[in-house]
Write a structure and sequence with these properties.
Elements: H1 2-21, E1 26-29, E2 33-35, E3 39-46, E4 54-59, E5 62-64, E6 70-74, E7 81-91, E8 95-106, E9 112-123, E10 130-136, E11 139-144, E12 151-155, E13 162-167, E14 174-180, E15 183-188, E16 193-198, E17 204-209, E18 219-221, E19 225-229, E20 234-239, E21 245-250, E22 252-253, E23 256-257, E24 261-267, E25 270-275, E26 285-289, E27 296-301, H2 303-312, E28 321-327, E29 332-337, E30 342-350
Parallel strand pairs: 2-8, 9-27
Antiparallel strand pairs: 1-3, 3-6, 4-5, 4-7, 7-8, 9-30, 10-11, 11-12, 12-13, 14-15, 15-16, 16-17, 18-19, 19-20, 20-21, 22-23, 24-25, 25-26, 26-27, 28-29, 29-30
The protein binds calcium ion.
Calcium ion (CA) binds near residues 132, 133, 134, 265 and 324.
Length: about 350
């Protein structure tokens, strides 16, 4: 019996030792938080000192140049936000393992803070739960939300008169809208689909499905792409012809990400986004984002407009600032809120 025990013990020891020999604990070694314009130097290490034969590195799924298990990344090539770094490590006798890691890139600038000076105001339907606002060829276009009350309208800015209107089916909760190439593109919130209408007739022509974006919130365009928010800190760029999501940026300032991005507008090359917010003290905030890299360059505190509305109107907590329209011909910037009785034309004042 003793001999059998000895044999078993020896066998177990041999198994354990040989398994130790082939054990690897690979890690990708990089800082986890950096600022834009920093250089990221990364390497692959094995925590128990094993060696590997070859490593390939990938950033967001694309292979990057590397040498002897090390790589260098220029953060400017990726913009701000979380970047996924993975490595394919080849080791032992024909073995390989894929490992994942992430690096968060923060903005390297502090956003400029603005307030809004009221230049003018126009009537706005207090029943309109505003989800999209756009100025096009002399008219205001607005989409509204809530099931059973979701509409898209063409409006006379000065009088507030509705010139044309289409109602969404009662199963849909309407969200953002934008106009491009004589079509109106409109989103729904959680139905994962959008609709396309003819700008002239308001006839629905087509519907399209969302891709990886979570929900439908705000919508605008840059002349060739639709730009969509989904309630997170991500902004998606869609091919206008196919409505396919091609890429996204992540809104980050110097202290982290800014999520709950809602109604959108392109204003002189910058992307303005309402932040859906109900916390005190700031209930009315617009974020100015660089559409090329996601950097939050400015914050517009429009709390004073909400207070202006409260002087003449009782509004609920969900009646938040949401609606930005820009008249490119005259550089006029219009903003409103859900169920607000006024649309304001404002000028930004640096604080
Ligand atoms: Ca807009």
């Amino acid at each position: 019996m003793k001999i059998i025990h000895k044999i078993l013990f020896t066998l177990l020891t041999v198994i354990l030792l040989s398994s130790c020999e082939t054990a690897y604990r690979f890690v990708i070694d990089t800082p986890t938080k950096v600022n834009l314009e920093d250089e990221i130097n990364g390497s692959i290490n094995d925590e128990i000192g094993q060696t590997f034969k070859k490593v390939l590195f990938f950033v967001n799924g694309k292979e990057v140049a590397s040498k002897n298990g090390t790589f260098t990344l220029d953060t400017n090539d990726h913009g701000v936000g979380k970047q996924i770094i993975s490595a394919m490590v080849y080791f032992g006798e024909g073995k390989s393992k894929r490992i994942n890691h992430s690096v968060e890139i923060f903005s390297n600038i502090e956003p400029t803070v603005y307030t809004g000076k009221i230049i003018n105001f126009y009537p706005h339907d207090p029943k309109a739960f505003t989800q999209g606002l756009e100025y096009h060829n002399g008219f205001l276009y607005e989409s509204t939300g809530k099931k059973g009350q979701s509409t898209i309208s063409k409006i006379n800015l000065k009088t507030g008169e509705v010139l044309k209107r289409v109602q969404l089916e009662h199963t849909y909760f309407g969200e953002g809208m934008t106009i491009l190439n004589d079509k109106i593109y409109a989103l729904t919130w959680q139905a994962k689909k959008g609709f396309i209408y003819d700008l002239e007739t308001f006839n629905q022509e087509k519907e399209f499905a969302y891709g990886r974006s979570k929900e439908g919130w705000g919508l605008t365009n840059n002349g060739s792409e639709l730009i969509k928010s989904d309630g997170s800190h991500k902004i998606w760029f869609l091919d206008a012809k196919t409505q396919k999501e091609k890429r996204f940026i992540q809104a980050y300032y110097d202290k982290g990400k800014i999520d709950k991005l809602n109604e959108l507008e392109m204003v002189n090359g910058k992307l303005y986004a309402n932040r859906w917010i109900t916390e005190k003290p700031i209930r009315s905030l617009i974020v100015i984002i660089n559409p090329n890299n996601g950097v939050v360059e400015g914050l517009i505190n429009l709390q004073s407009l909400r207070e202006e509305i409260l002087k003449s109107q009782k509004i609920g907590n969900d009646a938040v600032l949401n609606g930005i329209a820009f008249d490119t011909d005259t550089n006029r910037l219009f903003v409103t809120g859900k169920n607000w009785g006024k649309i304001f034309e404002i000028e930004l004042i640096k604080q």
